[in-house]
Amino acid sequence: MACRITELVLDCADPERLAAFWSEVLGYVELNREDDGSIEIGPPGAYADSESGSGSPLPTLFLSRSSDPRAGKLPLHIDVNATDRDQDAELERLLALGARPADVGQTGKESWRVLADPEGNEFCLLRRRVEPVQPVSR
Predict the structure, then answer these.
(1) Cys-Cys link to 118, which of 25, 34, 98, 130 (CB 3.0-4.6 A)?
(2) What is the DSSP string of the chain?
């Protein structure tokens, strides 16, 4: 037996804002909203199979409301790859969504671009284009 990652949790001051940002970045939709304002987003149809849990091979992103979120270089960060355009075009799209360049000491010769989401959480846009994961059918 083995485990798989089903959720990534990110503490944040404004779950609504980050849910909107990351939903656009990843093509995710809102799956659940907690009474405290925390929001879970994931692939469309992620909970299509409610008896066995997530019906998607992709993890959901749980944006947990916190009065003390930690921004900047996190011990664990998100890497993303474009699915339908090259890195430069995807970079333009992410910047238009509210990402901003982040400096973590890179030389400029790296194949990835370091960015920060609207709350300052760093993530990387990698160069390689990947195939999109097909939505889960019900």
Answers:
(1) 98
(2) ------EEEEEES-HHHHHHHHHHHHT-EEEEE-TTS-EEEESTTTTSSTTTS--SSSPEEEEEE-SS---BS-SS-EEEE-SSS-HHHHHHHHHHHT-EE--SS--S-SSSEEEE-TT-BEEEEESS--PPPPPPP-
**Angle made by CA atoms 121, 119, 14, in degrees to the nearest 5:** 125
Q: Could you report the per-residue pLDDT of 29-80, keeping only the tens digit for each?
A: 999 999 999 999 999 877 654 444 556 778 899 999 988 877 667 778 899 9
| One domain for residues 121 and 96 | yes
User: Taking the model in full, what pTM does it have?
Assistant: 0.83
Among 76, 62, 57, residue whose Cα is nearest residue 132: 57
Tokens standing for residue 37: 């304002």
Residues 85 and 123 in one domain: yes
**Domain co-membership, 107 together with 61:** no
Q: Are 70 and 17 in contact (CB under 8 A)?
A: no
